[in-house]
Amino acid sequence: MRRTRLVLPALTMAALALFAQVPVGAAPAMEWREVFNEDGSITQALTPKAPKEKSSEFRLLAAADVVEVQKTGDSADRFDLVFVGDGYTADDLETYSANVKSKWEELSAVEPFKSYKEYFNVWQVNVISPESGVDHDPTKGLLKNTALDMGFWCQGRDPQTERLLCVNETKAKEFAALAPQADQVIALGNTSKYGGAGGSVATASGSNAQAGQIAIHELGHSIGGLADEYDYPYATYTGSEPREINVTKDPTGAKWGEYLGQPSPDGGVIGPVEGARYYKSGLYRPTANSIMRTLGKEFNSIGRDAMVKAFKAKIPSLNNPVTPPVVPATP
Asked: Fewer CB within 10 Å: N-end or C-end of the chain?
């Protein structure tokens, strides 16, 4: 793997104190976040929002290495996946490299990533932390001095959801920006405890074998524009037809007319199944149990084809016409 040295603005101590202020007695702003459970099920948790950070004008220069894990072409004709790590000291970089390798191997073994593996560039940004580990691991209240502030219980903000592993997304994106391009950022925490979270930066426990499935699910959102197919936490949907291709309010499933009745890679048969996009009724998904509903599953036919379509929209060379070979005339 090739290595380059780049620089990134780092927080000064003064900037660390510049958080958004909440008036005394005021309820904190809340947001829904995906929670990934050890049994593969996915839910949503209403979690206090992280305080906003000030801009990089408050930052100093710090160094970070960018390692080329896989480069198959120019970024203009590739999907660039960037890993950043938290809680890895200089002595932990061998572990971090192994974590990145295992997560990429797991992702690229799942269709349609497997078939399009050679259209991905993969980068590893070596973010160095002063201390090993992440906050609230193995027990709540145990804090570590790390570069990206990653921690369970959503950095300690959510008292209900232990496995919600949140990261400072602003910092993670700034480190990821050191790579030639960052179409998707995945933050790995230096922990073997199961955990992860969705968001503009997906997170996963670096040394936990199950946590890699979180990244696959999140790329379904960010690449394919797919909706979640689980039915928590709402009751009945009464809105307009969803824009996402893998959910519909039509109980006939006409949105997937050409697929109806066909077997699907996730083990089901394409046909509307009620319960999707956070609603127990009023919305339908294409199959009983794809990876957009449960980790460890495959994408269903609708999701897989949406991903391939997105690959072709992002990667120009996939749209080049294929010239058939010239067959010599028979004498």
From this structure: C
